[in-house]
Automatic annotation (TrEMBL):
<dbReference type="InterPro" id="IPR046867">
    <property type="entry name" value="AldOxase/xan_DH_MoCoBD2"/>
</dbReference>
<dbReference type="InterPro" id="IPR008274">
    <property type="entry name" value="AldOxase/xan_DH_MoCoBD1"/>
</dbReference>
<comment type="similarity">
    <text>Belongs to the xanthine dehydrogenase family.</text>
</comment>
<dbReference type="Pfam" id="PF02738">
    <property type="entry name" value="MoCoBD_1"/>
</dbReference>
<dbReference type="InterPro" id="IPR037165">
    <property type="entry name" value="AldOxase/xan_DH_Mopterin-bd_sf"/>
</dbReference>
<dbReference type="InterPro" id="IPR000674">
    <property type="entry name" value="Ald_Oxase/Xan_DH_a/b"/>
</dbReference>
<dbReference type="Pfam" id="PF01799">
    <property type="entry name" value="Fer2_2"/>
</dbReference>
<dbReference type="InterPro" id="IPR036856">
    <property type="entry name" value="Ald_Oxase/Xan_DH_a/b_sf"/>
</dbReference>
<dbReference type="InterPro" id="IPR006058">
    <property type="entry name" value="2Fe2S_fd_BS"/>
</dbReference>
<dbReference type="GO" id="GO:0005506">
    <property type="term" value="F:iron ion binding"/>
</dbReference>
<dbReference type="GO" id="GO:0051537">
    <property type="term" value="F:2 iron, 2 sulfur cluster binding"/>
</dbReference>
<keyword id="KW-0408">Iron</keyword>
<dbReference type="InterPro" id="IPR002888">
    <property type="entry name" value="2Fe-2S-bd"/>
</dbReference>
<dbReference type="Pfam" id="PF20256">
    <property type="entry name" value="MoCoBD_2"/>
</dbReference>
<dbReference type="InterPro" id="IPR036010">
    <property type="entry name" value="2Fe-2S_ferredoxin-like_sf"/>
</dbReference>
<keyword id="KW-0479">Metal-binding</keyword>
<dbReference type="InterPro" id="IPR036884">
    <property type="entry name" value="2Fe-2S-bd_dom_sf"/>
</dbReference>
Length: 927
């Protein structure tokens, strides 16, 4: 069968039932991505005879005689298509995994399509950006705006900190040539398919693999009978003891539907899948529990009866992983009783999947020296390496873990979910092994945001000053305790400490159930509790007749106030590096009062309301977040940066490049990063807790300043000019009117700062950050909404977000992080929910799980407080996680003020809002 791809003729015979995406990737067209394989996300979009199609559902047999154009066929990094150039100029991507398909579809649009752009782009979803930058990119490409009067585009808009420097990989991302985990050829690879448990709780009596083993092409079948490792946790932290050791690579007892029972390692994915279906497993079903309240009640089935406090499980006999019961200031019940006004309510948040477009996956092999190498989609390569070494009883230096560009994470890739299996399979077979999850795997076998039940009691005096605050929180960690402890404690931290109150009490527990595991998710628990606390604060404002902005001003911590959770003393490592909450409140309130001219939908059914919420977050994880960095310069003036942090849309590669360019007075084009690799530097905790700037970036800054001093001192020795009067430039150093090139500078540095590389000597310096002190950042979200009382539809008329980000390192990129966080928050607040039926996920594909599309996300006005943090590099704070946290309560508060009925559960879907406005219909409904 002949067809054409990007102008090249191909003669190939598709396999039976093969889709076009797989055929194209078989011919090394890795620019065609796999996001869902169901026609829902558009990451695989290509043109067939000029028409955009989802190649994952386009039968390969139908391509005979046709012409296919992928994003790589539209343009090259050196010769971009106008749409590709516009995506570069307008920062139209973050992780970039959706970008290839997005550009392919957009390339077919005309100016007439722009008024209906959300509908025309409905087949392409983005999890990262919030769509504003994508709208701008498409609009400016399809109907170009007049050129900038100075002829300056985004790629030329600046070089250092404080400017919108273009991401280093931008041209590769928009042409599909930037390699993600599976965008590389792997010769002689075997493929892994996992057989999951059909039961929520069962003991495996026996496994019969004889029929599966006899299938030609099957190389190995792994089960608990032939794989033995220590217990561990899939959750990864700097200190591995922060999570319970309750997991095995293969466990003879399964505790959730979909849990690994066996893994087939075979020559092709199809053979592996067919063989898995031939495995016969005899189960002894065990009682299961799915409700977290029931799980801790007497007589409930016990999931991990043999775990002890030494395993970091507080009370296994009650399914309780972790508890927190503390308070200060006296008896909270007495304080509430003495308060002039009190509020009481219970709020619930649902399961949310990360929905990053690149699924989890790993490729493992052994190199020429016998060292285990794992290329994987992870946020934490060093932590994965160390745990693999422990599980496999290998020295850490015998394991290398690295990532390509990672297609989104949002906390979901702070887990070790595929690397262990790929590594075991490679060591067992001696061949490269590939384990790539499907979208259904992703939505049933990985982790979700922790569902929580949060009860809040607030007391206040007549002036609205808080007198008592009580939070009672129950977290469902699912079948395993990965991140259960950290999420529980963090959920009840800044959500409570943001308010001054003389009496506080927290009662929190995280419990096992037979639901699929929960894990790390953007906000790390804060969003769930903030939803409750900020809703309660709004109810207090209503009852007291006080403006909600004013109520926060009266009660929120001011600069220097102690940050108290449930103890009378503040956390010793958390300080005000700067303070911007007051500015954020003013900025958000002013914007909301100005309005934006949005028109309320016509008709008497629509009710309008405004709502707001605040949040605070520490700028890095507690108890240490480490980064080691090297910065070296060669004789050509190229700076080589070794940093362990991964790039997955967080923008760290851009910010690290800017830091080096600013500190060393060079151009970003002269900065080369080696990142996301355990061979790059001694250690990096990883890209989570928004640490890319405040931890790794600070280490990059320190290394850059150290190298600058080294080069300046060398120039001073060569010329006799005082170091104060030496100027570093992109092409060398100027001292006393003389330009000294980098070759001479490197020769002049002391031996301790000169290292010989294969391409010649380099001057080198190191930097480190240990995360011993943390600062705090603030966010304020405000909405104006209209609610249809007949359908429950919520129309967002205005969205405003104000952030205290310290020095904004890259304004356009930071704006995109805020917009993306708000968009993800809107999704979790209004649309997204993993539904379970007795522990079995019902929402297994994007088709039944509502990831927001372009039409769902409004324009968000983004404002930044003018602060400079004492701890962060150049005064920066973290700003990837925090914008998510106040979104749901701000929406809930706006809906309440529109309807005069308060939502208590997320998502606030149309059916739930309708029930709030039609309680009589709900009461009459048959049960």
């Amino acid at each position: 069968m002949e067809f054409e791809v990007n102008g090249e003729k191909i003669d190939a015979e598709p396999a039976a039932g093969q889709c076009l995406r797989m055929l194209l990737r078989r011919h090394a067209h890795f620019e065609v991505k796999k996001g869902c394989d169901a026609g829902d996300c558009g990451a695989c979009s290509v043109l067939v005879d000029g028409q955009p199609v989802h190649s994952c559902i386009f039968p390969a047999q139908r391509i005979a005689g046709k012409s296919v154009t992928t994003v790589a066929g539209l343009g090259t990094p050196d010769d971009l298509h106008p749409v590709q150039q516009s995506f570069v100029d307008n920062f139209g991507f973050q992780c970039g995994f959706c970008t290839a398909g997005m550009i392919v579809t957009a390339s077919t649009l005309t100016p007439d399509d722009l008024p209906d752009l959300p509908r025309r782009m409905k087949g392409n979803i983005c999890r990262c950006t919030g769509y504003r930058s994508i709208r701008d990119a498409i609009g400016n490409a399809v109907a170009p705006a007049p050129p900038h009067p100075d002829g300056v585009g985004a790629e030329d808009s600046g070089t250092g900190v404080g400017t919108s420097v273009c991401p280093p990989a931008a041209r590769r991302v928009v042409t599909g040539t930037e390699a993600y985990t599976f965008d590389v050829p792997v010769d002689d690879a075997l493929h892994i398919h996992v057989l999951g448990s059909p039961h929520a709780h069962a003991r495996i009596r026996s496994i019969d693999t004889s029929d599966a083993s006899a299938l030609p092409g099957v190389e190995a079948i792994l089960t608990h009978e032939n794989v033995s490792t220590p217990r561990f946790s899939t959750g990864r932290h700097q200190n591995r003891l922060e999570d319970p050791d309750d997991t095995l690579v293969f466990d003879p007892v399964v505790r959730f539907i979909g849990q690994r029972v066996a893994a087939v390692v075979a020559a092709t994915p199809g053979i592996a899948e067919r063989a898995a279906a031939l495995i016969r497993v005899d189960y002894e079903e065990l009682p299961a529990v799915f409700d977290p309240e029931e799980a801790r009640a007497p007589g409930a089935p016990v999931l991990h009866p043999d775990r002890t406090p030494e395993d970091r499980v507080v009370a296994a006999d009650q399914n309780i992983v972790a508890t927190f019961h503390e308070g200060f200031g006296g008896d909270v019940d007495e304080a509430l009783a003495a308060s002039s006004t009190t509020v009481h309510g219970t709020w619930r948040t649902g399961r949310v999947t990360h929905a990053q477009l690149e699924t989890h996956g790993s490729i493992a092999w052994t190199d020429a020296t016998g060292r285990l190498v794992v290329r994987t989609s992870t946020q934490v390569p060093f932590l994965v390496r160390d745990e693999l070494a422990r599980l496999l009883d290998l020295p850490a230096e015998k394991v290398r873990v690295f990532s390509g560009r990672v297609g989104g994470g949002f906390g979901g890739k702070q887990e070790m979910l595929t690397e262990d299996l790929a590594a075991v399979a490679t060591l067992r077979t001696g061949r490269p092994c590939v384990y790539e999850m499907t979208r259904t795997d992703e939505m049933t076998r990985t982790t979700y945001r922790h569902p929580m039940r949060v009860t809040v009691d607030l007391g206040a005096d007549d002036d609205g000053r808080l007198t008592a605050l009580r939070v009672d929180m129950l977290s469902d960690t699912g079948a395993y305790g990965n991140h259960a402890i950290g999420v529980m404690f963090h959920a009840c931290a800044e959500s409570v400490s943001v308010y001054n109150c003389p009496v506080k009490r927290i009662d929190a527990e995280a419990v096992y159930t037979n639901n699929p595991p929960s894990g790390a998710f953007r906000g790390y628990g804060l969003g769930q509790v903030i939803f409750a606390v900020e809703s309660a604060m709004d109810e207090l404002a209503v009852r007291l007749g006080i403006d909600p902005f004013e109520l926060r001003r009266r009660n929120a911590v001011a600069d220097g106030d102690p940050l108290l959770i449930a103890r009378p003393d503040p956390e010793i490592d958390l300080v005000y590096g700067s303070y911007g909450l007051d500015q954020c409140l003013d900025l958000a309130e002013s914007a909301l009062r100005r309005g934006n001219g949005a028109v309320v939908p016509p008709g008497p059914r629509w009710r309008v309301g405004e709502g707001m919420a605040i949040s605070a977050i520490a700028t890095m994880a507690p108890r240490g977040h480490f980064a080691d960095v090297t910065v070296a310069v060669d004789s050509a003036g190229t700076y080589h940066v070794g940093v362990g942090t991964c790039e997955f849309g967080n923008g760290t590669t851009t910010v690290h490049t800017q830091i080096v360019a600013s500190a060393l007075s060079t151009d970003p084009a002269r900065v080369s990063l080696w990142h996301g690799d355990t061979d790059a530097v001694p250690h990096d905790t990883g890209a989570f807790a928004s640490a890319g700037t405040t931890v790794a970036g600070k280490a990059v800054h320190g290394a850059s300043l150290a190298l600058r001093d080294t080069l300046v001192e060398a120039a001073s020795r060569l010329t006799g000019v005082d170091p104060e009067y030496v100027e570093l430039r992109p092409d060398g150093a100027v001292a006393g009117g003389r330009l000294i090139g980098f070759r001479d500078l490197i020769d002049a540095v002391d031996d301790g700062h000169r290292v010989r590389y294969p391409d010649g000597p380099r001057a080198v310096a190191t930097g480190e950050e240990r995360g011993e002190m943390r600062s705090i950042a603030f966010d304020v979200q405000a909405f104006r909404v209209a609610v249809d009382t007949e359908t429950g539809a919520v129309a967002i008329l205005q969205s405003v977000h104000a952030s205290d980000a310290g020095t904004v390192m890259n304004p356009e990129q930071c704006r995109g992080q805020v917009e993306g966080g708000v968009a993800q928050g809107i999704g979790a607040a209004l649309f997204e929910e993993i539904m379970l039926d007795n522990g079995s996920p019902v929402t297994k594909v994007f088709r039944t799980y509502r990831v927001p599309q372009m039409a769902d996300i409004p324009f968000t006005e983004v404002y930044f407080a003018e602060t400079a943090d004492q701890l962060g590099p150049f005064g920066a704070k973290s700003m990837s996680e925090s914008p998510f946290n106040p979104v749901a309560p701000a929406l809930a508060n706006a809906i309440h003020r529109a309807l005069d009925v308060r939502p208590y559960e997320t998502p606030m879907s149309r059916d739930r809002i309708w029930r709030l406005t039609h309680p009589e219909a709900v009461e009459k409904a048959p049960t």
